[in-house]
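Bench log. Compound arrived from synthesis this morning; before running ITC I wanted a structural hypothesis for how AN7 sits in the protein. Inputs:
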Amino acid sequence: MAHQWRGVIREYFDRLPFNEGDPIITLGEGGTPLILAPALAKLLDVGQVHLKYEGMNPTGSFKDRGMTTAVSKAALHGAKAVIAASTGNTSAAAAAYAVAAGMQSVVLVPAGKISWGKLSQAVAHKAQILQVKGNFDDCLRLARELSQGYPVFLVNSVNPDRLQGQKTAAFEVFDALGYAPDLHAMPLGNAGNISAYHLGYKEEREIGRISQMPKLWGIQAAGAAPFITGSPVLKPETIATAIRIGNPASWDLAQAAKTETDGAFGSVTDKEILWMHRFLSQETGVFVEPSSATGAAGLYKAFLQGTLPKVENIVITVTGHGLKDPDWALKTEAGKKIKPKKVAALATSVAEILGLEKNK
Ligand code: AN7
């Protein structure tokens, strides 16, 4: 019988801070595909590129890895409600895992700035949703304050249980490849994910499965790039709403991830993000939300500028599914709406529009 993936806590039980008998709240997260992408290897002129397709998680983003651990710990502590600030994906994951745990969820999102796919998930999973008149950074400040003064359990990545779950993505990369890549790139927002990969790869080195850490590259959107400007951005702006974050919580951890792995931070414009979003869809077959294209976009930019290190193997984490924020696929590069043609229900009409000639 084929092996049924049991979610990251059970799959990596001996490498996570859980004890026998602890509650485990899971939707079967993790075990996501690592997809060989020859088109990207060609574009970047390197040996191999793999995409870690985190959109294949149960709620469509990598956030599920950390939510299974955070909500399981919340259950252990007897929590009745969880709270999260979110640009969208954390709210979707918190809402779904709260349902699985029989808890209420409260999510604080920046008003008008989360994609409708993500909002629909939070609504579907009956979260109490509040649109805050402010940005993500305001939402996170509020969520922290509320969790300190009220009976709601914080499940943002400032909660260390989140990073514990998210580190399993690094384990999976090694499990799939049998080695660590030379370089691993990803989008960079609140900086939980790069910190978690750093933790995961460090543990792989400690147990001797790898000898050298991959260079960790975190790529930000140019309008929300505090790691590039060197200080918090007060008014972050980008179409990649998932990473529209000006004051990342895991600042020091992300700096350590970069420094200790000889990695790099980069930034890309919205135009560069959308170009790569299209390239991934059209040339690799992997559909992601715009923010998830930033890792690859940052590497391509470095390649064009001649600053991409000469390496053999690259992994790029694409963090969220394209269906989260599908509107961008329905626009041309110039921003024009794409509408498929209508046709009469006749083979000859279809063939004519397609320019097909009848077989001889
Ligand atoms: C698709 O959901 O912050 O650097 O509140 O949704 O770990 O923050 C989402 C972030 C990348 C950035 N890609 O990761 C939230 C939230 C996607 C994301 C990031 C996010 P971090």
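What the model suggests: Strands lie at 34-36, 48-53, 81-85, 104-110, 128-132, 153-154, 183-187, 215-221, 264-268, 313-318. The chain has 14 helices and ten strands.
ITC booked for Thursday regardless.
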